Amino acid sequence: MNSSDLNLIRAFWAVSQCGSFSEAARSLGSTQPTLTRQIQCLERQSGLHLFERSNKGLKITEAGERLVESAGEVMKQVDGFHRSITGQEDTIEGSIRITCSELFGLYSMPDALCAMQQSYPELKVELDINDNIASLSRRDADIAIRSPKPTQTDVVSRYLCDCSLGVYGTKALLERYDYPDNLPDIIKCPLIGFDKNKVAKEELKAMDLGIGREQFSMLTDSMLQQLALARAGVGLCMTFRYVAQRFPELIRVGEGLAMPEAEFWLVCHADIQYSKKIRAVMRFLGDWFTTGNRFPGN
Q1: Which of 32, 43, 145, 220 suits a disulfide with 225, CB 3.0-4.6 Å?
Q2: Is residue 198 assigned to a domain?
Q3: Kind of pairing, strands 123-129 and 94-100?
Q4: Structure confidence at residue 234 (pLDDT)
Q5: Chain centre to alpha carbon of residue 203
């Protein structure tokens, strides 16, 4: 079996387990078009029709069902092989450096790291909480949690979660501006935004809200500082809903606005993806964040 055959089996297994091409692509750190081509290639090679596509979604065919068990066995063998060559069955120990943004680090990582510490008590974690993007190629960090998905070809990514955004301010501020609930009225309020963060500014531009640097009365690239300023009544800020609901003084406005969701990914450099520590931590954090209600309010 060559690597391309294995990729086709991996693609089939992921789609059969996830029930959709989009979710399977996320689980593999791939894209929906790539996964679709792989399934089409497998269907051509096998002469079998594996999935039915309809308005109700994706349904595996009887021919596909007969292959699921075999595909699962192949993937178990592959995982076992990787565990053997990377020593995953040994104790996970040593140091690992993880980087993430301030808000994610403060409000999402503590519970995850507490659970991971119980599973890997010999592992030392260096947590770099920083809104600046650390370079994985220069080994500024071993693992990064990023939004949006990185486009570099030399990294390996695993989908973590979507986090909903909202616009928030204090009761006193909202009363002064008669509780704005639509975009024109919100823009009349003092707004808190990003200063030099190019990625954040490009994402805001893509939202097509008509809000730019000239509309902001307070600028900082720290989302933690933006949150603190909003809580102090300085202005309105955009932040994650699961974070804002921790602070009763913050009230959401503009609930009718079409707000995007921030997509978070777990990322490591391709050169170290088979390290036993990297694989163990990537698997643990990926599984932890994708199970349970980790982001209440989303």
Answers
A1: 220
A2: yes
A3: parallel
A4: 98
A5: 15
250 and 267 in a single domain? The answer is no
What is the pLDDT at residue 72?
Answer: 86
Q: Is the pTM of this model over 0.70?
A: no
| pLDDT reading at 1 higher than 80 | no
The whole-number pLDDT of residue 294 equals 74
For residues 183 and 225, membership in a common domain is answered with yes
Residue type, 199: V
CA distance 246 to 289: 19
Q: Determine the 3-state secondary structure of 52 from DSSP.
A: strand
For the purposes of burial, counting CB atoms within 10 Å of the CB of 212, is it exposed (0-12), middle (13-18) or buried (19 or more)?
exposed
For residue 122, give its domain range.
94-158+262-289
Which residues lie closer than 8 Å to 200 by C-beta, 6 or more apart?
A: 194, 221
pLDDT at 3 over 70: no
Mean pLDDT across 237-261:
92
Q: What is the CATH number of the domain that holds 178?
A: 3.40.190.10
Quote the CA–CA distance of 297 and 240 in Å, as a whole number.
9
- Final residue belonging to a domain, choices 60, 86, 112: 86
